[in-house]
């Protein structure tokens, strides 16, 4: 077990907020308080005999930065503890996390059953790149368990979804989909980017593999790209770790250190994101220039009840459709003075995005229709500025 504050406090007695700050730091002989950054590509051996023994796996220890790094391990152990999984492996980005899961668990001839409401690049990866290697994907409505059931095939090996989805915050029934996956010898992979383990721990509902884009809330200040995969030792610790070690899409120690320090403030940040997003959603819902608002604090959200069971809070992403189509949506984007016009989310800075022309711009019109991404849709990732300033900046364009 990793060191905690005074190296004796049993980790399993700590709450998630404390583990996010304490887990995973094995102090060096310097007795540093803050976690050190190990910027080294390889590690040394005392002798030729020790080198051979470490390479053969006869004695533990670091060998080479593509295999292990103490700072990366610190981040991995902390996130695994927060997701309540056996282990975690860190990757270069969220997309490389998804790719590594697919490379580790699938082969030519296998089938992916995916929600149609996933990040646009994930759809492109499945449809364009994995298809080249004989892995086919069928896309289904995230919220209809019946649709998932009827699309499952004998060769379906992986069910993939985001809940809440990007950008419409629709919610899947995790327990039902985990049962479906397991009854068909498949694994349920959940992209937990919008909630983070602070709001939702998908393994508690039966999910097998949890994906993160650490680029988002885990870092929380828009500084790095990173990803992570959490799950059990057999799937993540062996099958997927093997992909990282041999194919190389690993997280750098510098990025791991930034994300690791980001985890320390994650719980208070998520609380503030949720609170401000709830206030913004209520204001937007009341505005006659807006057609529809998507946020889990609103009782008219179709999965309001389900989210209350699966999540401890409503999340910081608010999406809405403006009346008047694409030009009105773009006018609103252009009228903001404080909000950042950028595609990232989960930042301390509030961001505004037009998904149809950016994050989901490479999808066909049919795919966007299937995912519910209209030209009048805007996504706000509510940051940590004073919420009244955020509201005023959006209201000006309405
Ligand atoms: C839900 C979701 N998953 C995965 C990704 C990909 O993450 P990254 O940009 O770190 O590769 C994103 C990026 O926006 C995302 O929003």
In summary, what is this structure?
The protein has 2 domains: 11-264, 3-Layer(aba) Sandwich (Aspartate Aminotransferase, domain 2); 267-396, Alpha-Beta Complex (Aspartate Aminotransferase, domain 1), CATH 3.90.1150.10.
Number of strands: 12
| Superfamily (CATH H level) name of the largest domain | Type I PLP-dependent aspartate aminotransferase-like (Major domain)
The residue fraction in helices comes out at: 25-40%
- Let me know the largest β-sheet: 7 strands, mixed
Which hetero ligands occur in this complex?
Answer: pyridoxal-5'-phosphate
Unreliable runs: 1-5
The dominant shape is: globular
CATH architecture of the largest domain: 3-Layer(aba) Sandwich
Sheet-strand content, in percent, reads 5-15%
What does this structure look like?
This protein has 398 residues and is α/β, with parallel strands linked by helices. The protein folds into 2 domains: 11-264, Aspartate Aminotransferase, domain 2 (3-Layer(aba) Sandwich); 267-396, Aspartate Aminotransferase, domain 1 (Alpha-Beta Complex), CATH 3.90.1150. It is 39% helix and 15% strand. It has 15 helices and 12 strands. The chain has helices at residues 16-22, 48-55, 70-83, 94-105, 120-129, 145-151, 174-183, 196-199, 233-247, 253-264, 266-285, 304-310, 325-335, 365-371, 387-396, and strands spanning 87-91, 111-115, 136-140, 156-162, 187-191, 209-213, 227-231, 290-294, 317-322, 340-341, 351-353, 377-381. It has a 7-stranded mixed sheet, sandwiched between helices. The protein starts with 15 loop residues before the first helix and ends with a helix. The model is unreliable at 1-5 (pLDDT under 50).
């Amino acid at each position: 077990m990793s060191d905690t504050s005074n190296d004796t406090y049993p980790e399993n007695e700590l709450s998630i907020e404390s583990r996010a700050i304490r887990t995973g730091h094995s102090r060096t002989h310097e007795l540093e308080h803050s976690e050190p950054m190990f910027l080294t590509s390889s590690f040394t051996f005392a002798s030729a005999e020790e080198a051979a023994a470490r390479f053969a796996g006869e004695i533990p220890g670091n060998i080479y930065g593509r295999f292990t790094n103490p700072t990366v391990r610190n981040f991995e152990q902390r996130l695994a503890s927060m997701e309540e999984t056996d282990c975690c492996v860190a990757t270069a980005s969220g997309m490389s996390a998804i790719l590594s899961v697919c490379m580790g668990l699938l082969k030519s001839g296998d089938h992916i059953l995916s929600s149609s409401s996933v990040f646009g690049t994930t759809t492109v990866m499945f449809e364009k790149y994995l298809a080249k290697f004989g892995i086919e994907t069928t896309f289904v409505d995230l919220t209809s368990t019946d649709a998932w059931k009827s699309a499952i095939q004998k060769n379906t090996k992986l069910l993939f979804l985001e809940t809440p989805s990007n950008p419409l915050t629709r919610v899947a029934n995790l327990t039902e989909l985990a049962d479906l996956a397991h009854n068909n010898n498949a694994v349920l992979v959940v992209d937990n980017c919008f909630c983070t383990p602070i709001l939702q721990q998908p393994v508690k509902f039966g999910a097998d593999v949890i994906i993160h884009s650490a680029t988002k809330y885990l870092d929380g200040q828009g500084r790095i790209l990173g990803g992570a995969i959490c799950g059990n030792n057999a799937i993540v610790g062996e099958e997927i770790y093997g992909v990282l070690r041999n194919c190389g899409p690993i997280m750098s120690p510098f990025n791991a250190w930034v994300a690791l320090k980001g985890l320390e403030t994650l719980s208070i940040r998520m609380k503030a994101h949720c609170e401000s997003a709830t206030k913004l959603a209520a204001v937007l819902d009341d505005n006659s220039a807006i057609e529809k608002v998507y946020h889990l604090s609103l009782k008219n959200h179709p999965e309001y009840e389900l989210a209350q069971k699966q999540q401890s809070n409503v999340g910081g992403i608010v999406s809405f459709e403006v009346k008047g189509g694409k030009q009105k949506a773009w006018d609103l984007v252009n009228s903001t003075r404080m909000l950042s016009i950028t595609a990232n989310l989960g930042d301390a800075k509030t961001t505004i995005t037009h998904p149809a022309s950016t994050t989901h711009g490479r999808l066909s019109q049919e795919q966007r229709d299937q995912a519910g991404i209209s030209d009048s849709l805007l996504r706000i990732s509510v940051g940590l500025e004073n919420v009244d300033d955020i509201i005023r900046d959006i209201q000006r364009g309405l």
